[in-house]
Each structure stands twice: as C-alpha cells, then as structure tokens.
Design a protein that fits this description.
single chain; alpha+beta; Beta-Lactamase; Arc Repressor Mutant, subunit A; 3 domains; 5-stranded antiparallel β-sheet; 16 helices; 43% helix; 18% strand
Length: 430
C-alpha cells in the first residue's frame, strides 16, 4: 500500500461546518443531497451503549449507507452524514483492492485537499504505511473492531510517529476513530472519522456506534463491488458489440430499442428505409414498419429467427435484417416472473458498405509484406486487380504477382476464397 494511494493513510486538512445530508436523485437521474435530522454526537449522553436516540439516528444513517450500493455518488452524502452524527470534522473512506485495482478508491470529506508538497514528499519517500502508521497496522490485526488512536498507543508515543508529525498534524488531524472491515487479504477497506485538536477525543459511545455500523458497511460495500463488476462486464460486452462492422440492435418484442451499436446508428442516420421512431425500431414505409413489428412479435413468442429485406427510398441495395431471440435470464426470480420479457437481437447489414480492413493487421496475421497487406485490403474491399493497380500506381503484372504470393501465404486458391479467409479472421473486425 503506497502513501499516495492511501492519501496519507486516512488523511485530512482544514475544518468547516457541515450540513446534514442524505442522498436522492432528481427527475433527470442526477444525484442530489437533501437535509436530514440525524442528532449530533455532541448532543448525546456519552455512555458506552446504544441509546434509543442513537438507535433512531443510526437507522437513518444506515439507510443512507445502503443507498451507496445502487448509487456510488451517495458515498459523499454518507460521509457527510457520518461526520455530523459522530461530531467529527471530517471522514475518510478508503478501499484498496489489489485484485481489482479499478475498484480502488479514496474519498475524503470535511478537509481541504492535502497540500501538494506533503503528498509529493510521501510519493518520493514511498513510505510503507502499515509500517509507519500504527493505526493501519492495528486495523489489519483487528479487522471489524472500531478503535481510537489512544487504543493503539499512548498519545505521546503516537505524536512521535512520522505519520503524525509529517502528515496528520500539518493536516489538522488530532483524533481518529477507525475501523478496517475487510477480511479479504487483497482488500483494505476502512472508514475513519476525524477530529481536529480543538475537539474532544472520541469516546466509548462513539466506538459502540461505529461498531453497530460495521456489518452494514460490509454489506453495502460488497453489494456495490458486485454491481461495479457486473457493470464493467456489461460495459465491456457493449464495447465489443460497438466495434463490430455490422449493425447490432437489441430490442424488446414491442420494438423498443435497448441498445444499438455504432454501425446500426450509422445506418439509421441515413434515414433511408429504417430507423428509430421515438424509442421503437421501425421501417420508414408503412408496409416495412408493419413487417418489422410482426417479425419482432413472432420471434419474441416462438423463438427461431426471421430474415427480412427492406427497400430503400434512395434506390440503394436493400437492407438485410436477421432477427433472433436472446437467451432467457437465469436465476430464481427469472422463473417466477408474472410475464416473460424476452429480448431480441436484430442484425442489420448495408450491402453497399465497403468492407475496410487494416493493412497492418493483415500483414501481421498472414505474414505479409507491407505492399501485400495494402493489396489484400483493397481486394477485400471489392476492388478489382486493375483498380488496385491504379490505386497503388503500379502495373497489373505487379498486382497479379502480389496476388500469387497472397494465395501461397493464405492457402487460398481463388480470389473469392482469399476474401472469405480475411472476413473470417480477426481482421474482419478491425
């Protein structure tokens, strides 16, 4: 764990007052915060137990915490709410995942950004925090157990540590209440509530309250991490579809479009026989619109596939469509839904599109020379040998010589077979 990644190992800066917030979403799906009524820690009796007042406020705080599972932007509102509840100056959430680095994050509220010179000094020194920060070493030894600085070592001894002298004190942090709530070796997940030197130490009631939050922190974090992985997997799949040279549209049987890749959107932009009207896939002509609607419903009900051709008002070659049904979702809920909602895939092709392949990709895949790659790219795009010769500024004899070399290197015997080999290779997707 690097000092920079941990932002100084639960860090901070100057203080300011905090409103009381919870998170919500407006009509446009934008994240918003709203005020709420959690009682401040300074107004609670400091006893080492969860009082009824604390219990009610904790339930409200826990509700905000679970909002983070579906909306990661809610973490800031949760930290603001926790800061107010615990009477702290700020809070730091730290999640470091060595197995999935993209899921690692650090969020600090209540303090100005840590000064650049302090961060740069830690980067240059590459201080290993578990060895330099006794709080982190303690949290790793006792996961899921909230603690204060005073629980780790005497205050005078802690003040003598480098992490206090070089980072915490310059940042205005005097008291910490923390917990590390991951049992997985490759994950460090911590929450720290932070107070400045003018504030009192965290007491037993604060420790008890943070302990009550721990199981909910673990669940909310696990839920959010699972959703993050699913979203990343889904996004990766959509990016693959978006890179395909043929149109791919995912629709519902009613025609509502859920996804259309770049190639499909290029065809829609032509406004030449097919497009999206409102949010529905439709032909521009009434008979084509009716034909698409019937085909979608039929495949949605019966499965199988439907192939269609659509006339183009421009007079271009008819668009070609193939409609198939996606597999049914799995899981317990999928078998107990009131009504099945299958999704369909519409494969959409424009025969007039020229097939473009990257000569450098062809060169590497088939072991070609640079010139042979350029010749093959043009042949695959439908150019004749005479047109290739004109494009490259060479004679037809030279082009035929390159074609002979291409046949030998690819194992093709005819020009059509040569093109087929290219289209069935990864080059056809480049």
């Amino acid at each position: 764990m690097s000092a920079d990644a941990a932002r100084g190992g639960w860090a901070g800066g100057s203080s300011h007052d905090h409103p009381r917030f919870s998170s919500t979403t407006d009509a446009h799906g934008r994240h918003r915060c709203r005020k709420f009524g959690i009682a401040n820690a300074s107004n609670r009796a400091h006893v080492p137990m969860i009082t009824p007042e604390m219990s009610a406020s904790l339930r409200e705080l826990i509700g905000i915490l679970y909002e983070t599972a579906s909306n990661p932007e809610s973490w800031r509102c949760f930290l603001d709410a926790a800061t107010h509840y615990f009477g702290a100056q700020g809070a730091n959430l730290l999640h470091l995942d060595s197995a999935h680095p993209a899921l690692s994050a650090s969020l600090l509220t209540g303090f100005d950004p840590v000064s650049a010179d302090v961060q740069q000094r830690y980067r240059q020194q590459q201080v290993p925090l578990p060895g330099e920060d006794p709080r982190i070493a303690y949290s790793l030894k006792f996961p899921n157990m909230p603690f204060r600085c005073a629980d780790v070592m005497p205050v005078e001894k802690f003040h003598a540590t480098r992490v206090y002298r070089e980072f915490l004190q310059p940042s205005g942090i005097e008291h910490s209440l923390m917990v590390q709530y991951s049992d997985v070796p490759e994950v460090f997940a911590g929450l720290a509530l932070l107070r400045g030197p003018a504030q009192a130490q965290f007491n037993d009631a604060d420790v008890a309250a943070l302990g009550a939050l721990v199981p909910h922190l673990r669940r909310a974090t696990a839920m959010r991490q699972r959703l993050d992985l699913l979203e990343r997997q889904a996004q990766g799949g959509l990016q693959v579809l978006d890179a395909l040279p043929i149109g791919i549209v995912i629709v519902h049987p009613c025609g509502r479009v859920e996804f259309a890749n770049a190639a499909a959107n290029t065809i829609f932009a032509l406004n030449d026989g097919i497009g999206v009207v409102g949010d529905r896939l439709a032909g521009r002509r009434r008979r084509d619109a009716d034909g698409i609607s019937v085909a979608l419903r039929r495949v949605g009900c019966d499965g199988g596939h439907q192939a269609m051709r659509l006339e183009r008002p421009s007079g271009g070659t008819d668009f070609q469509l193939l409609i198939t049904r996606l597999g049914e979702p799995e899981g317990m809920l999928a078998t107990h839904r009131f009504q099945s909602q299958p999704r369909l895939t519409v494969i959409l092709c424009n025969p007039d599109d020229r097939i473009e392949t990257n000569p450098q990709v062809l060169q590497r895949l088939f072991g070609l020379t640079a010139t042979e790659g350029r010749v093959l790219a043009r042949i695959t795009a439908g150019r004749s040998p005479d047109e290739v010769a004109a494009d490259l500024g060479v004679g037809i004899v030279t082009v035929r010589s390159h074609l002979s070399a291409l046949f030998a290197k690819t194992g093709a015997n005819r020009q059509s077979e040569l093109v087929r080999k290219v289209l069935r290779s990864p080059a056809g997707l480049s």
